[in-house]
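S., here's the first fold you wanted:
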Amino acid sequence: MMDPCAHCEEMMQPYLDRILTDAERHEAEAHLAECESCRRRYRFEESLRVYVRRAVDTPMSPELKEKLAALRIPLN
């Protein structure tokens, strides 16, 4: 039998993407309700997604674009 936390880990991204079946979603939610460790992991993953979404929405300053362009190495 698969470790319930390992199974929850496999389901974490699809759960956050809301692409699980109803049965899988209920299974994930039941495990999250019982397991503090997986709940902490879920909260981390959820907050990371929010952070990345905000970072993507923030325009890059011209100065930063210039610094990054200077770091480019030509592909030959």
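And the second, which I think is the more interesting of the pair:
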Amino acid sequence: MIELTDVDFDETISGSDVPVLVDFWAPWCGPCKMISPLVEEIAAEYAGKARFCKVNTDEHREAAVEYAITAIPTIILFHRGQVEKKWVGLTNKKNITAGIDELI
């Protein structure tokens, strides 16, 4: 998992030749703590096929504002710098992996 900042967010998303999944979270968020192990599990399964990143919305607000993150956890799947899928709140592994599978 790559920890993104406001400084490297755009370059990481637009410069990737594989899909990029970004988990927007905060340390105080209970549901974020629940979904984090799932995202890490998917990241291990899709290593080399997609990139997996996290953005702490308390510390890096610009990216959260740019992508209208109004609730966390929010997971956004990017492809070639564009938003392809967005999940707000808790979701399941099947939904996330299906989104990634469509792009690889």
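Why I say that: The chain has a mean pLDDT of 96. The chain has one domain: 2-103.

Talk tomorrow,
H.
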